[in-house]
Amino acid sequence: MSKTFEIEKIYYSISEVAEMFDVNASLLRFWEKEFPQLQPRKNSKGNRMYSKKDIELFKKIHELVRVQGFTLEGAKNALRQKVNETDGAAIQARLIRVRSELVSILSSL
Question: Are 28 and 58 in contact (CB under 8 A)?
């Protein structure tokens, strides 16, 4: 009995990512210039190697620009706003944890 294992890749080539989204590789290169957050690694030959994080970011950009019709500037602003909201939520969660620890310490005194 043989089992087949599906191994997930750590990095994807530019052509693989372009195929995932049915776009040209040139669009990926262009959006790299427009969105500084999108910076895939490059191997020793200079080929772009996209991580899952890079692909998720490209997916967000693609959704904003191609699906929702945002301009590039609008998409940049939307991404900045999402980062700020995420940062705020993380800070709030951390403050809640600190408060509960402090309340616990106070009750043990």
Answer: yes
Yes or no: say if 15 and 48 are a contact pair by the CB < 8 Å rule.
no
CATH code of the domain in which 88 resides: 1.10.1660.10
pTM assigned to the model: 0.66
Q: For residue 75, how many other CB atoms are within 10 A of its CB? A: 22
Total domains in the chain come to: 1
Which residues fall within 8 angstroms of residue 104, CB to CB, at 6 or more apart? none
| Residue 47 near residue 13, CB atoms below 8 Å | yes
Does 35 map to a domain?
A: yes
Name residues whose C-beta falls within 8 Å of residue 76's C-beta, 6 or more positions apart in sequence: 34, 35
Across the 109 residues of the chain, what is the mean pLDDT of every consecutive 10-residue run? 69 94 95 92 94 93 92 90 64 82 87
For residue 47, give its domain range.
12-108
